[in-house]
Amino acid sequence: MSTVDTSQNLTPSAAAKLRRTAWYRTERYTRLWAMIALGLLLALVTGEQGNTRDIFYSITHTLTGVNLWVCLGATVGVWALREFAATPIKGAVSAARGSAAAAAGGPVGSLRARFQADKRLRLGAYAVLLVLVLVVPSGLERSWQTVLVDQIAIFALLAIGLNVVIGWAGLLDLGFFAFFAVGAYSTAFWTGRLPVEPPVVLNNFWVIPVAVLTCLVCGVLLGAPTLRLRGDYLAIVTLGFHEIIYLVAKNADGITGGPQGARLIPDFSIDFAGIEYTWSIKPLPYWYLLVFFIVLVIILFSRLEHSRVGRAWTAIREDEIAAAANGVNTVQFKLMAFAIGASTSGVAGVIFTSKYGYINPEVFPLLQSILILAYVIFGGMGSIPGVLIGTAILVWLPEALKDWVDPSDRYMYLGALLVVMMIYRPQGVWPSRRRQRELKLAEEGSGDADATSEPAGGKN
Amino acid sequence: MSLQEFWDYLVLGVMLGSLYAVIAIGYTLVYGVLQLINFAHSEVFMLGAYGSLIVLQLVSPGDNPSVMASIGFVALAMAGSALFGGVTAYGLEKVAYRPLRRRGAPRLIFLITAIGASFFLYNLAGKLFGRDPLPLPEMYENREIFSLFGAGVNITQLLQFATAVVMMVLLDLVVNRTKLGMGIRAVAQDAEVAGLMGVNIDKVVSRTFIIGGVLGGVAGFLFANLNQVSYTMGFIPGITAFAAAVVGGIGNIRGAMFGGVLIGIVETMTVPLLGDEWRSVSAMVVLILVLMFRPMGILGERVGRAA
What we know:
heterodimer; A: 460 residues; mainly alpha; 2 domains; globular; disordered C terminus; B: 307 residues; ABC transporter involved in vitamin B12 uptake, BtuC; cell membrane (chain B)
């Protein structure tokens, strides 16, 4: 045997030397390097705008400017505080939190319990909220009213629909915005603004049920061939579906009007029982209309969530095979989720188109499909208040940032926010309780938190 | 379509397809080890193109460089793109995905993180380097060098095709013949068991990202050499390449190569048959048709089993 016994000629001090990590590889200093890298990145992110005449302009300016030192100072300062002054700060924070909890925790907790117990109280709170939602926007500036109507409310409707597909049934749909396009183009068609003539020209209000129906059918059409697919495969197919809809809208000039799209789409109008009213370009009337539909959809969907259908969706999301084994008709319920989810985009499409007055394919880029998914996840998928809050925050943020940063940088911050959020609070701003539990279980390694956890065709 | 046109477009399609194949490998490798659609891979591709642009602007090839100088410039540009691609992919894994992996987050969370990272990266590139498209500086005098079935092939196309093929062969060797490759396959097959068998999962995942990033970066350079560099250039090729990876069977490296070439040919053939504007539609239609009849892609999934 020629095995060398190393322990013989390895003195304890030499062994200790081998075990020792160099100082710059210890945890404390790896964190420092990470903070320095973060500072550099921060400096680049907040630095000057580059230009194509000299692509090094922005980088050289950042690396020689004051901004770099400010950012580095901030991040290294945070590191130093955390490493060397952690104990006193933590003590102070926990003391403050303790006293705050003592002051507020009790009442808040009992308030919550009372809310859950008392139905009248809950309804009262909803009523107050509704009144606030109806009254507050009239005090806002015109530009914010427009944001509220054209973006937040429309996207909220869409997000509620997508929430059914992804939050409840767990089907990863990356092409949801395509249904919105379907709704919008149905409006243009039924009001007679496309190159093809409709059989009858309808009032916008009558277009809504028709558009909803069209979206339902489209949902089934998309769902049917993709039902065998799961998770990521479904994601790419729905993405492809969006791309197809977009390119058809853009290229089928004879049917969809091509790149010009449709113009002069009439506004909503009522001429019924002596009441005559036309929604013009003012945002507020549209806001009331949208709030009406959002509230309607929320009521309908939250009834659905706790019905047999909703429970079937949950079962499919958590374990499709187990659901099927227990007698859930998975095909039917998955199709239903696609169709019902798509239907809200019909409503949203009609209202958006009527408000805007014109549409073209560029209103429906693929990016929007992805963004809207981000809204749902950010807010907390599966929970309607979460979805509403997520949409409101993520739509509002780029608009609010407009005054602070260069407008073209807005989506950079949005992206960074998404990453940070997913790392530190993956369940979203306002998660549903069931979802929170699923995530926790998944992290402990028991159970899956979404239908995407298994490859298509099952594990084989 | 005349026969000559058919050959012309077929040659073009194979060339484009080889590029898609290289990008698709990046998706498939990451999917293999992490079961994650790395949406940000298209940004790796884009930053790779910027890497070559930066290197070329630094060395600034003058007019009419000699043959040796041309080769040198191309090599430098390629190295720059590989470096940028690799570093971006490595950083992405380290910053965005590793914390999630540690926690065992569900895959949807990974997907959203990837989308967020993609948004961040491409807008950051737009901010740093300006938002107008830029051509790469001329590294050599482009001319037709030979013809294949009557279809002319110029230097750019040959460079693109040859580089793609060489990279794919190298990658196949790495995955099938080296220890790292064995690690990749082991993690793809069953990460937990691979960990128990002494595979350093973090290291393997990180290196997988680097390999995918280098491939994506160089593909970015090749693409930019044909078109232009811009901060939004990654999105469409990225999605198409991902579709190609799925068509071939995601997680399967040879499947990605096959799918890439197939999608490339289909896309190019659409141009004479239906018109340029229907290109992406044809790719997506092929994707949906394939998945309807073979939900796991043509060659089936998984790095561990099929490669």
